Amino acid sequence: MKIMHTLANDTIAQRPKRRYYSPVLKAQIVAECQVSGASVADPYAYLREVMARLPMQRASQVGKLLPHRCEPTKASSI
Fold first, then answer.
1. Which of 63, 34, 60, 41 is nearest to 50 (CA)?
2. Element (H or E) spanning 35, and its range?
3. Does pTM surpass 0.70?
4. Which of 14, 34, 46, 62 could form a cystine bridge with 40, CB 3.0-4.6 A?
């Protein structure tokens, strides 16, 4: 049985498209964090959140995930 997301009027809701970034781009983000000397309270939690948020970011907004510009989500403890 498939579960579909529906709106109030029983029409199928459009899911946001998930973007996939290469491991090279992810490695560049980690390297940029190390080079910039940016520090966060819990580096593992920061990287876990960035890797979770990265596929949903537009390419032009990837810079917002760097530690000195990152805005943590409410559930995050960065």
1. 63
2. helix 23-36
3. no
4. 46
